[in-house]
Recover the amino acids of this structure.
């Protein structure tokens, strides 16, 4: 079976930077507390007129430019997001129209922060099957829109950004070796947003109860997230007869530095082989792995022939891993 490979990456974050010092004035917290528990120094936040599709379009345009492609060269668009502009049309629809794509198919996937791996996996399978020649994969979030800035457990973490990757069939054996996707609904109450859907539609009562913001049980999420990272990483490596020693760079979901460090240690990866940018961006959900990948490529941390391990987890819980040769 042929492989899908990444031929162009892109990323975009809003101009506004929200620092820990600013958060000290908004909620009962301080820079030392935030950095000790998350490793985050600052995060990017959209302005009042920006939406998720605006960030997605910037990232997609950059990925297309780096792949030396035009919108007409793309056959399908898949977007991972928890924070679409609206329930419908999808972010994929908006990106397709505003960038001048042909009337290609598009779809949004909701797998919370695992939307990066889910969208990459879905895009890769369209290439592998021969259905499409090229697929644009996007992860985009405006998590600040569902952040309760009176809750220090979440407001210090969540942020906004978008990342993208263009996939096409590999002709030299490089590309995405494998992906694994998982979910387990028993952990749904650890990280979720109760309002806004059919269970608790928007009413004065649900708004007053602050049900349209993300809620998280931080210590429980930490324990489950580390286990998920480790299990999916070990499973995908074992399936291909690999160990941590075979990995040149690990690019995890940038949720929390403590989670990243604990997972890397248990997998057997030194931090020198782990790409981290959570200190500058915070948790950007489905965008984070794409943004980190783009930065790693731009910084020269990724070389031709390198073996990369990507992994992410999110509310639901949903999680997954991807193994690829650059």
């Amino acid at each position: 079976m042929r492989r899908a490979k990444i031929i162009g990456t892109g990323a975009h974050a809003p101009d506004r930077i929200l620092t820990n010092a600013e958060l000290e004035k908004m909620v009962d917290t301080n820079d030392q507390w935030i950095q000790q528990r998350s490793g985050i120094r600052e995060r990017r936040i959209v302005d009042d007129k920006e939406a998720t599709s605006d960030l997605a379009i910037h990232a997609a345009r950059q990925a297309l430019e780096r792949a030396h492609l035009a919108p007409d060269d793309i056959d399908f668009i898949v977007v991972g997001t928890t924070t679409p502009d609206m329930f419908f049309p999808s972010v994929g629809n908006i990106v397709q129209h505003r960038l001048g794509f042909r009337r290609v198919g598009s779809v949004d996937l909701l797998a919370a922060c695992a939307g990066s791996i889910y969208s990459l996996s879905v895009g890769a399978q369209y290439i592998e099957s021969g259905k499409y020649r090229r697929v644009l994969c996007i992860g985009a979030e405006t998590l600040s829109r569902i952040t309760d800035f009176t809750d220090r457990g979440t407001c210090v973490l969540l942020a906004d950004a978008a990342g993208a990757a263009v996939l096409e069939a590999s002709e030299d054996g490089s590309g995405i070796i494998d992906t694994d996707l998982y979910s387990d609904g028993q952990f749904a109450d650890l990280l979720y947003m109760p309002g806004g859907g059919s269970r608790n539609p928007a009413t004065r009562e649900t708004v007053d109860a602050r049900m349209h913001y993300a809620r998280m049980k931080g210590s429980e999420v930490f324990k489950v997230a580390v286990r998920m990272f480790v299990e999916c990483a070990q499973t995908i490596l074992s399936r291909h007869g690999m160990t941590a020693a075979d990995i040149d760079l690990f690019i995890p979901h940038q949720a929390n530095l403590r989670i990243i460090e604990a997972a890397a240690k248990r997998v057997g990866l030194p931090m020198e082989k782990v790409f981290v940018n959570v200190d500058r961006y915070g948790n950007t959900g489905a965008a984070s792995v794409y943004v980190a990948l783009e930065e790693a490529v731009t910084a020269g941390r990724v070389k031709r022939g390198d073996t990369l391990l990507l992994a992410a987890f999110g509310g639901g819980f949903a999680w997954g891993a991807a193994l690829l040769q650059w």
